[in-house]
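Please decode residue identities from the backbone states below.
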């Protein structure tokens, strides 16, 4: 973005959009949709003066560099750790360096303008901040061939080959329908991903239930059921053997079962939230109990899989059943008061539109949802690949996690609409008896089994403080652990990696900040911490079951099964 692009004008345009949405009821708490013009604000006027002064200093610096006539150029007036401009080429060219610095000035001041925006609703401010950031990310000079010296250098050094290869990469991705984030030929589900041995022991229209073969002679008497998110494919928890959470759980002496959600087709377009509870989680729990001949299981849910799991257990408790000895929730919402940036896409108007669109059923394409999640980290998951693949003509390296990230799954429209309305928009789950599932008014406070709660510090999908609120909603003893990194990488942190670390605090704390203030950092993965916690709730050690399934639940096919291989 050049100096002639006025962030004040952009700010006014974005603010007008927010005001229009307020006037149409997008934020129901907005008491005053008619707001004063931002240019009348003394704070904004002061920011504009500072903005102009800083650009004046940048211009003076450029003039001095031009006048040096080959002498060593002075250091730029602004320095930044922004990795988009870390290459030496940005500093070697006064013009390109100036463009980068001018862009950073504009970005910083647009952010400050949002902070003083005359909006009377914090959700409106959050939305303004999010979309202003999206705009600025898109306008970075690194995203355009003419203003990125790295792109120009690559073209010159390769004799134009980088341009030809970039066009070829673009055409290939257009044909594929998405941006390549990894070497798509390097991985295959069932070949080098999701290879933990096991079998499908049950299936229906909603899911397949996998049971994994034991890897130890003795196992805990109480089996473990894993409920992954249905908005992604389960193998994020079973990537390659070295970073497979599933394999680790089996190696620790657990009899592990896992739900593989169906990548739904039009014939499953009528499925709703209750179907995923009754025919998904509760059916899986019944099957695991029958196969292992136990009354209770240990249960683990990840992301929306954790929300489904907690909901299903609350339904069971409402029916005076108690099928779970313990509950593990990984980066899971139970209270949706602060959904982070994802909430910027969700308001009354958008949810009502989804409800109308799916009133008679239908499919929500997984690629659309994948695009939404990528936009939450646009620089990491969109723009770096636009630059690397198309402008520089490069190929992204093989990375199993990003292969999974680009392998989306479809959702039934009624399920999505119900989920958005009752969770994100109205936050009904946290209120005892407010929402009914499978004919039962649920109360999370009745879940009095011990619970292990993992959040991750840089999570952009489930902010860790929101995950912490689950301690207030559940009725039993809770152990809260705060891992490093983000929503996925913080969970998939193998015990052998020695990376990141996590925070623990066993003392009770009334809120997230109090807990954080007294927390102690431990080195390495959180997996061993969880495994030790689970071992205390696994019961006595028994001989491992060599046979998978039972007379009632005979093996259908080897793991990973058919459902996970179906494309969106």
């Amino acid at each position: 973005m050049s100096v002639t692009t006025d962030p004040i004008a952009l700010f006014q345009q974005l603010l007008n959009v927010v005001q229009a949405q307020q006037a149409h009821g997008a934020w129901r708490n907005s008491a005053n949709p008619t707001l004063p013009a931002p240019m009348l604000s003394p704070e904004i006027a002061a920011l504009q003066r500072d903005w102009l002064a800083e650009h004046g200093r940048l211009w003076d610096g450029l003039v001095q560099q031009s006048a040096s006539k080959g002498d060593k150029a002075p250091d730029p007036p602004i320095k930044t750790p922004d990795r988009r401009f870390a290459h030496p080429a940005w500093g070697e060219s006064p013009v390109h360096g100036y463009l980068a610095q001018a862009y950073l000035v504009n970005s910083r001041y647009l952010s400050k303008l949002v902070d003083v925006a005359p909006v009377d609703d914090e959700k409106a401010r959050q939305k303004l901040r999010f979309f202003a950031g999206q705009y600025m990310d898109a306008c970075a000079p690194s995203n355009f061939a003419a203003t990125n010296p790295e792109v120009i250098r690559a073209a010159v050094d390769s004799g134009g080959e980088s341009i030809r290869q970039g066009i070829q990469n673009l055409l290939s991705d257009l044909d594929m329908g998405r941006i390549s984030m990894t070497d798509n030929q390097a991985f295959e589900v069932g070949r080098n991903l999701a290879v933990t041995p096991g079998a499908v022991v049950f299936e229906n229209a909603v899911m397949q239930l996998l049971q994994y073969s034991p890897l130890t002679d003795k196992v805990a008497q109480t089996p473990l059921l894993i409920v992954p998110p249905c908005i992604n494919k389960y193998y994020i928890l079973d990537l390659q053997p070295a970073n497979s959470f599933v394999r680790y759980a089996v190696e620790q002496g657990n009899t592990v079962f896992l739900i593989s959600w169906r990548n739904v087709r039009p014939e499953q377009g009528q499925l709703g939230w209750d179907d995923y509870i009754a025919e998904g989680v509760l059916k899986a729990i019944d099957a695991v109990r029958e196969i292992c001949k136990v009354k209770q299981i240990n249960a683990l849910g990840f992301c929306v899989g954790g929300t489904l799991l907690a909901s299903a257990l609350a339904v069971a408790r409402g029916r005076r059943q108690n099928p779970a000895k313990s509950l593990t929730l990984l980066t899971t919402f139970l209270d949706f008061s602060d959904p982070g940036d994802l909430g910027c896409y969700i308001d009354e108007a958008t949810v009502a539109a989804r409800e109308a669109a799916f009133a008679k059923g239908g499919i929500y394409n997984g690629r659309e949802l994948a695009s939404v999640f990528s936009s939450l980290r646009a620089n990491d998951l969109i723009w770096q690949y636009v630059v690397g693949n198309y402008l520089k003509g490069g190929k992204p390296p093989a990375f199993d996690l990003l292969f999974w990230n680009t392998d989306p799954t479809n959702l039934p429209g009624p399920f999505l609409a119900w989920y958005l309305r009752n969770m994100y928009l109205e936050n009904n789950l946290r209120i005892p008896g407010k929402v009914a599932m499978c004919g039962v008014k649920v109360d999370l406070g009745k879940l009095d089994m011990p619970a292990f709660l993992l959040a991750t510090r840089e999570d952009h999908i489930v902010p860790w403080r929101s995950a912490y609120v689950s301690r207030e909603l559940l009725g039993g003893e809770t152990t809260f652990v705060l891992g490093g990194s983000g929503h996925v990488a913080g969970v998939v942190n193998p015990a052998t990696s020695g990376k990141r670390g996590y925070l623990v605090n066993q003392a009770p704390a009334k809120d997230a900040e109090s807990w954080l203030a007294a927390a102690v950092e431990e080195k390495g993965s959180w997996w061993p911490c969880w495994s030790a916690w689970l071992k205390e709730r696994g019961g006595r050690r028994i001989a491992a079951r060599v046979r998978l399934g039972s007379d009632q639940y005979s093996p259908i096919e080897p793991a990973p099964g058919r459902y996970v291989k179906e494309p969106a």
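Observation: The CA atoms of residues 70 and 472 lie 65 Å apart.
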